[in-house]
Amino acid sequence: MNRYPLWKYAILLVALLIGTLYTLPNLFPDAPAVQVSSGKVTIKVDTALVGRVETVLQQAGIKADFVQFDGNSVKARFGDTDTQLKAKDAINKALNPDANEPGYIVALNLLSRSPQWLSSLHANPMYLGLDLRGGVHFLMQVDMKAALTKKAEALTGDARTMLRDKNIRHAGISRDGNTVNIAFRDVEQRTAATDVLKNQLPDVIWTPLDEGSELRLSGTLNPKAQLAVQEAAVKQNITTLHNRVNELGVSEPVIQQQGVDRVVVQLPGVQDSAKAQDIIGRTATLELRMVDDGSEALEALKGNGPVPFGTERFIDRGFGPIIVKRQVVLTGDALIDAQTGFDENHQPSVDLTLDAKGARIFKDLTRENVGKRMAIILFEKGKGEVVTAPVIRGEIPNGRVKISGAMTTQDANDTALLLRAGSLAAPMEIIESRTIGPSLGKENIEKGIASVTWGFAAVAAFMCVYYLLFGVFSSLALGFNLLLLIAALSLMQATLSLPGIAAIALVLGMAIDSNVLINERVREELRGGESPQQAIRLGYERAWATILDSNVTTLIAGVSLLVFGSGPIKGFAVVHCLGILTSMFSSVVFSRGLVNLWYGRQKKLKSVSIGQVWKPEPEATDVAAKA
User: Fold this and answer.
1) Where is it mostly found (predicted)?
2) Reported confidence tier of residue 623, pLDDT bands at 50, 70, 90
3) Which of 56, 145, 408, 611 is 20 to 30 A from 620 (CA-CA)?
4) H or E element at residue 55
């Protein structure tokens, strides 16, 4: 009657093993480490850097637990913080001989002491939030005025192009703050321009102005469009910061909008605030300029003369110095995407996609400069480097640009990555900087673990005293639930914070409710005169509907927090929702498996250990009255 088939026990055993395996890494503490990442987008970090770091440490007499390459950076783990600091100084001195122009970022970090065999099984610990692991917190403010100014500059160029395409004459276009001013000599041309601009730039309010003999057309963005520009600027900055930080290998960074014009950046595990500022400040900008291949430029490259007026000298990656004109044709804002591909000769290439404005400019540029070279320059911290300088083979009308030539597939991948690095839509300023030390994080972890442990112990003690052996089964199911929850969070590589620990403690209290419902239902069936085996079966079956209803309604509230919440609220909601799902499985399936294993094979079961079953007193019969 109360027996599980063998396959159900096999499922429970597999779940128990997987839960144990993926929970284990969380039992190992963090160790001090040094992280080496690229200080420039033009410098690539690969496995060869592992050997260089090992050599440096060996020469300095410093022993590391291991040095490994994790895809974006090289990390070395050490036994104590003193060795960590010595290693950082030695590595920084060796890899960055010029302190004014470092090629690598050498930062303090933390790594788990989890054994390598667990890591090989992809069993990794949960990420810990800033409040548990320590790290750096920045509050950055976006310069919204600069974003609107940048948009006004773009509108100025768009208006000039549109009027030229329609052959509408004007006396000059200028920008005054965020207002575009167009001067005209007669009313007819201004009227024609107003019709064109209102039709093609609907987000701009165009107002005719007459000041004496001067005819002007003034254009400003409407309030809705201004708000859209500001929102887009914040979103683009967040995306750019994500790309930069993710490429540096910082585990689970938090980069999110706060308010209208502020962005929160949290880098857990990073202990060096100055280096963290360097990380988030590394946002590159792109410019497209024409190469000067004139005789004066060639003589300047040979060292026989000065750089021609209106040009600059740059370094072309892999090819040496190059002379480029100062006039900027396009910026990185016009670049939508950059991917690797192959040209018509099946050679590696970089495929660029430009926006509508960039496509128009690029069409004119390529038509007028066939056979000449253009340079794509990457600027970082005020210093520029030529990524590539291809020859223009013909007019490119649709904004789909293919760059090919003497490059390997890896070169094409690297170039596409550099071009995708992006630029900030508006300047940002750090208005708040805060460092949380690992000691404070350790204290938070200890207090959090203590709260969960004591809560679990109190619940288990009550259940064992009140429900006896069934209380033991319920406590084991509660432990199984905790094991599954931590394993699920580890598998998802979720970030655990203090609100998440609070959610775990809450889940323990909620999970035991299901077992209380089951145990009381079994008691009720026993009071009703059912046999012990029948009472167990009916107790689990009839309690299931109530358990499902209560958990589904709680899950709806958790999903609402997950969808509409942010930051700590979302972290709480993730643990809360997962805990509800694991508790339904553990309290019903796992606890019944234990009960079936203990009582299921006893055919003549006379009683069960479930505490005192209070049976109602029989109603008294008034015999005398009947007589």
Assistant:
1) membrane
2) very low
3) 611
4) helix 48-59
Residues 403 and 389: their CA atoms lie apart, in Å, by 9
Where does residue 320 fall: left (phi above 0), alpha (psi -120 to 50 degrees), or beta otherwise?
left
* Dihedral angle, C-alpha 397, 398, 400, 403, nearest 10 °: 0
Exposure of 339 by Cβ count < 10 A (0-12 exposed, 13-18 middle, 19+ buried)? middle
Q: What is the residue-wise DSSP string for 72-94?
A: S-EEEE-SSHHHHHHHHHHHHHH
Give the containing element (helix H, strand E) for 186.
Answer: none
* Spatial separation of the C-alpha atoms in residues 385 and 387, rounded to whole Å: 6
Collapsing DSSP states into helix, strand and coil, what is residue 612?
A: coil
* DSSP conformational letter for 620: P
436-448: average pLDDT:
78
Contact yes or no for 4/64 (Cβ under 8 A): no
Q: Are 580 and 554 in contact (CB under 8 A)?
A: yes
Give the separation between CA 437 and CA 269, rounded to whole angstroms: 9
| Lowest-confidence segment of 130-139, 245-254, 601-610 by average pLDDT | 245-254
Q: What six digits make up the tokens of 542?
A: 């009839």
Type of residue numbered 468: L
Q: How far apart are CA 592 and CA 604, in angstroms?
A: 19
Strands 30-38 and 104-112, bridge-based pairing:
antiparallel
Q: Which residue, among 338, 326, 328, 324, has the nearest Cα to 288 in the 3D structure?
A: 328
φ, ψ of residue 567 in degrees (nearest 5): 60, -130
Distance CA(274)–CA(252), nearest Å, equals: 19
Strand partners for 218: 181, 207
3-state secondary structure of 132: helix
Taking a C-beta distance cutoff of 8 angstroms, is the pair 252, 493 a contact? Answer: yes
Lowest mean pLDDT among 3-12, 62-71, 247-256: 247-256
Strands 172-176 and 179-184, sheet pairing? antiparallel
Residue with tokens 């480097």: 385
* Residues in a beta bridge with 391: 373
Alpha-carbon distance of 516 to 471, in angstroms, equals 9
Q: Helix (H, G, I), strand (E, B), or coil: what is residue 432?
A: strand
pLDDT confidence bin for 621, thresholds 50/70/90: very low
Higher-scoring residue by pLDDT: 222, 337: 222
Those residues whose C-beta lies under 8 Å from the C-beta of residue 65, and which sit 6 or more positions away, are: 31, 77, 78, 79
**3-class state of residue 570 by DSSP:** helix
Tokens of 553: 């309604």
Tokens 């001090």 identify what position? 32
Q: Are 23 and 490 in contact (CB under 8 A)?
A: yes
* Whole-angstrom Cα Rg for the chain: 34
Average pLDDT, integer, range 324-341: 80
Enter the pTM of the model.
Answer: 0.65
| Structure letter (DSSP) for residue 291 | B
339 close to 415: Cβ distance less than 8 angstroms: no
Burial 340-353 (b: 16+ CB within 10 A, else e): beeeeeeebbbbbb
Q: Which residues pair with 433 in a beta bridge?
A: 138
Among 195, 198, 205, smallest CA distance to 225 is for 205
pLDDT at 106 over 90: no
